């Protein structure tokens, strides 16, 4: 089986890559596949009706929405009935938090990290108003690593939920979700994982990871502005209904999708799943789930090469501090790299790169707590370079040439 990407094929699928710009702000939103845009257009022009009626166009629309759940079940290795869809990860986590209200009682505890995006922090802090105790699992201030022994020390019989990111959208670090799940479940608690910064880079296997809830945004994975949440079926059934009063608790996933989902985005998102399968098929996989795994294997190898190239350069500069791991190994990090420069603000570094038509960004990226708690606001946050598999070594070299005078 081939493990190399055909970059000519890959880049031909993304019309936006014909631009003069090199896009390295992908953690904020990737370029969109032409096939995704075609599917969105097709839905809007040919089946743009409400689902659930007896007439044929409505039945077609309903089948298309169902097909999106089937596609994401292949993508995440779960059952279609365990897929909840929504506008964004931020929205879905707020829905989940609201739906968990009846399960959380005063005195219960929730564990949060300070490395997460605020989407997986803010919704849970709201429960403190009802007497829920929030405990913080903080990273090491030097290495930015989360210590599993520290998590064990936070767990007790009152712990009901632990929330953590699979990969930090600033650090790029891949957290050991299965090990975390084992610790959490041993204490009788549940695990909620924000996978936004992980999903574009590696295959997701919810059965192997054993998280109870697992959420990512399709617009970071080459699709439209849409998001997906996996929830174990029994966990979803136990949640409160947050839709109309006449939806009972058994109506999963619909009780967790108030106002219905965006049908055209759901149909369009299938194109992103099909694309990864196509990458796997080109690598020699038979299709379906196996092709998704093979496709991401090829993606990971390409990204590892890009990550190593940039990290080698940054590590060679005396005035640069890499925020997170300096190792490019694909099982340790994704291709999101953040750093600060000793004598320049992060804003100045990024603005100097703009002239080379390379799109990167500076700031806190809504992971504000890690930036504030570790003194990174003084440098106007971090410089973040977030690459995906369609980026090339030539683009990395172009970025390095633009960075070099500033560092």
Helix content, binned percent: 25-40%
Strand-and-helix sequence, N→C? HEHHEHEHEHEHEHEEHHHEEHEEHEH
The main β sheet shows up as: 7 strands, mixed
The strand line-up of the biggest sheet is: 2-8-7-6-5-3-4
Distance separating the two termini: 41 Å
Low-confidence stretches: none
Question: How large, in whole angstroms, is the Cα Rg?
Answer: 21 Å
What would the average pLDDT be, to the nearest integer?
Answer: 97
Strand residue content: 5-15%
What would you call the structural class? alpha/beta
Give the number of helices.
14
Overall geometry: globular
Give the beta-strand count.
13
Protein name: Cysteine desulfurase-like protein
Organism: Antarcticirhabdus aurantiaca
Structure in words:
The structure is a single chain. 38% of the residues lie in helices and 14% in strands. The mean pLDDT is 97. The chain has helices at 7-12, 34-46, 56-76, 89-99, 122-125, 148-154, 177-186, 206-209, 233-238, 263-282, 288-315, 346-354, 368-373, 393-403; strands at 22-23, 83-86, 109-113, 133-137, 159-165, 190-194, 213-217, 227-231, 320-322, 336-341, 358-359, 361-363, 382-386. The longest helix has 28 residues, at 288-315. Strands 2-8-7-6-5-3-4 form a 7-stranded mixed sheet. It has a 4-stranded antiparallel sheet with strand order 9-10-13-12, with helices on one face. Strands 1-11 form a two-stranded parallel ribbon. The protein contains 14 helices and 13 strands. The chain is of the alpha/beta class.
